[in-house]
Amino acid sequence: MTTDINLDHAAMRNTLANELGFLTEDQVALLAMVKPTTVEDWRKRGNGPAYTRFGSAFFYTIDDVKDHIRSLMRQRSRDDIIRSI
Description:
single chain; alpha+beta; three-stranded antiparallel β-sheet; 62% helix; DNA-binding protein; DNA-bd_dom_put_sf
């Protein structure tokens, strides 16, 4: 029964955050296919997307997550292309 309540609470929080234009830390972890503790480590080290703390929870604007993903984009150099031939 407690598990159901926790799942309902998490689902409601996710819905509310999304309606306000934010992702929760769990949603960012799901998107990145990493554990939530990894997103926590990124936040603590300043390696992940910008975040907002509200109460005891951390939220990420969708635009900041997009910007962070774009910042990770890498282009293959001409040398890499030639070596792969």
